[in-house]
Amino acid sequence: MVEYIEKARKILDHFSPEKGDFLDVRFFIGETTNIAIRNGVADQTSSQANIGAALRALIGGAWGFSTTTSFEEGDLLGAMKTAVGTAKAMAKSIGEPGVVTEEYVYEGNAPLKVTSDPREIVMEEKIRVAVELDEHIRGVSDRIKVSTASLSDTVKREVIVNSLGSEVDVSNCYISVRGNATAREGSLIQNAGESVGSTWGWETVEEVDTAEMGALVGKRAVALLGAERPPSGRLDIVMDPSLVGLFIHEAFGHAMEADAIQGNMSVLKDKIGMEVGVPEITVIDDPTVEGLRGYYPYDSEGTRTRRRVMVEGGVQREFYHSLETAARMGVEPNGAARAMDYNWKPIVRMGNTYIDGGDMSLEELCQEVGDGVYLKKSGGGYVNPSIGQFFFSTQEGQVIKDGELGPLTQNVAMSGMTLEVLANVMGVGKESKMRSGSCGKGSQTAPVGMGGPNMAVKGVVVGGR
After folding, report:
1. Which is nearest to 32 in space by CA: 10, 49, 18, 15?
2. What angle do CA 452, 454, 455 make, to 5 degrees?
3. So what's the pLDDT on residue 153?
4. DSSP assignment, residue 248?
5. Residue 196 sits in a domain of what CATH number?
6. Count of beta carbons in the 10 Å neighbourhood of residue 421
7. What is the predicted pLDDT for the residue at 57?
C-alpha cells in the first residue's frame, strides 16, 4: 500500500488545487479468467491481467479524466496534467458546475479475504470444472440441444488517493459458475439455468457439485417441455425470491441512483420522505456483507460503505450516492460510486439490494392470492426508470388454484409500473434469499447481489410463451 500511496501523493503535490477543486488517483490491478464450454466444445478460455491508473480532476466546476497503463511517476504526472488541462478547458462551457464536499475523508486497508486464491489454481483445473458441468447438463436427455457451462474468477485491487486526504487500499475476489440448458421438442423450446457466485475464493467452486447442478439444470429444461402453457391476463401473483430480486434491483434500484434522480430520469425524484409502497416494504442495500457478490468495503472513490436502508416501512429514505451527487443534494456520501476498471470513471451503482423479509409463509401467500400464478426463476427484462415501467420474464411458473400450488407452467412474463406493484403488495414472505448477478450501466458492468422473499402482488399483467 505504501508504495502506491507515496506515488499518488507525489503526483498530487505537483498541483495546488483551489477551494472547491478536487484531484484523485486510482490504481487498478486486476486478473481475470473466463471459461465457457458449449456442447462439449471450448467456446472461450482466457486469462488476462488488467493494470492501469485512472486520474480525475475537478477544476473550476468541470471534470477532466485521464488514464495510463504505466505506474512510472513521469507517466502518472503526464496523465494528471491531461486531466487538469481538460477540466480547465471545459470550465468555460459547463452547465451546472461539479462539486465535491471537502468534509468527507476516508482511510482504510481492506485486504483480500479468501481461503483459496483462484490465481493459484491451474487453468486445467478450471477447465475441468466447466467441462464436467456441461457434460452433466447434456447427459440428462437427448432433448437438450444446447448446453453451456461457464466459470469466471476475478481478483482486483484498487488504491485510491485524493487531494482531500483520503487513502484507501481495497482488494476483492469475484467467482461465478453458471450452467444453462436449452431443450427442444418439435418447435417448442424451453430454457433453464442456475448460477453460483460469491466474493469468496476458489472454495466457492469446490463447494459446487457439478453432477447435481448439471442434472438440476437439464431436468428443469426437459420438464418445461411438458409443462402447461402459462395463464395470461391481469392476475394476482406470487413472485419468488429471484424475481423479487430482479424487480427490486432493475425496476426500483436503478431509479434510486442519484445520478438518475438529478438527471430527471427517475420516477422517484422528490420522493424522499414519501410513501413509495405499502408499509410491509423495506428495501436494504448492504455492500458490507462478506461473501455476497455485491460486497465491497470501499467504493472506487475511496468512500467507506455501509448498510443502506433505502426504503423503510414503505417510505423512501435515501438514494445511492457518489461524492458529487451527495454534495449536490447536501447529504453524506454512502459509497455507491463504482468503476469497472481503470478505463472508466466511477458511476453510481448498487451493491447487495433486497427487500427485507416479512411474516408470511409461501402457503399463506398462495392462500392470499387464491387463484393466480407463482412466477419462478427470473430471466431477463426491460426497464424504463424514468417512468417506472418494466417487463420481466421468468423461466417457469406454477398455477395457484384455490390457494394451493398446482401444475408447472412454461416461461411466464410480467409487466407493469414499478410503484403500482409496490402499492399493490398483498403480503411479504418470511425469509430473504440472495442471488448473484452482473449489472450493466453506462457500458460498465459491476458484480451485484439481489434478492428478497416470496411476495404476493395483486393485479399484475402476466403472459407467456
Report:
1. 49
2. 100
3. 98
4. I
5. 3.30.2290.10
6. 25
7. 98
Same domain, 133 and 273: no
State residue 32's pLDDT score: 98
Expressed in angstroms, the distance from the first to the final Cα of the chain is 54
For every residue of 99-157, DSSP letters joined together read ---TT---EEEE----SS-GGGS-HHHHHHHHHHHHHHHHTT-TTEEEEEEEEEEEEEE
- If asked whether residues 242 and 214 sit together in one domain, one would say no
- Tell me: do 79 and 24 sit in the same domain: yes
Rg value, the chain, Cα? 24
CA distance 62 to 334: 23
**Which grid cell is 51?**
493494470
216 shares its domain with 341: no
Strand partners, 376: 396
Cα separation, 45 vs 41, whole angstroms: 11
pLDDT reported for residue 94: 85
Cell, residue 191: 430454457
The Cα–Cα gap between 375 and 454 comes to 10
- Please count the structural domains in the chain: 2
How far, in Å, CA of 146 to CA of 354, rounded? Answer: 32
**In a shared domain, residues 204 and 239:** no
Q: Are 58 and 22 in contact (CB under 8 A)?
A: yes
pLDDT in tens, 239-279: 999 999 999 999 999 999 999 999 999 999 999 999 999 99
Query: Whole-structure pTM over 0.85, yes or no?
Result: yes
Q: Tell me which residues of the chain have a pLDDT lower than 70.
A: 1, 465
Residues 259 and 178 in one domain: no
- Give the domain range for residue 90: 2-225
Same domain, 208 and 239: no
C-alpha cell of residue 118? 483462484
Chain position carrying cell 487538469:
84
Look at residue 325 and give its three-state secondary structure: helix
Q: Which residues pair with 285 in a beta bridge?
A: 308, 353
Indicate whether 213 and 270 sit together in one domain.
no
- Count of other CB atoms within 10 angstroms of residue 399: 17
CA distance 409 to 464: 9
Report the C-alpha gap between 412 and 304 in whole angstroms: 40
Domain end (from 194, 225, 256): 225
